[in-house]
Amino acid sequence: QVRLLESGGGSVQAGGSLRLSCAVSRYSSSTYYMAWFRRAPGKESEGVAFIDGKGYPTYAPSVKGRFTISQGYFKNTLFLQMNNLAPEDTGMYYCAADLTERRTFRAADYSVWGQGTQVTVSS
Known about the structure:
Elements: E1 4-7, E2 10-13, E3 18-24, E4 33-39, E5 45-51, E6 57-59, E7 67-71, E8 77-82, E9 91-98, E10 112-113, E11 117-122
Parallel strand pairs: 2-11
Antiparallel strand pairs: 1-3, 3-8, 4-5, 4-9, 5-6, 7-8, 9-10, 9-11
């Protein structure tokens, strides 16, 4: 069964940067359409960013201009460069994927999820 492996979380001060990585656990000739979600303590999960089949990114308004989503050189890898982090960015960040191109921030549309990586931003 395919899994998603995330890394790159950590603790930083406000204004700092982190880079998250996500990769499909085993080689697949199929293309997974991937996205980043996050869940802050006591809040619902929210979509952060996704890339469509043509490589065009879409961002949540709260991160636009600060975060950059990109695909890796190797198939089915994904990154999230997070700059100018703020305390409200604190939360568990999840990579999500599906074999169908979704172009949505609807969590139910993605069938494969990672375990999450914690991001903590202190003021």
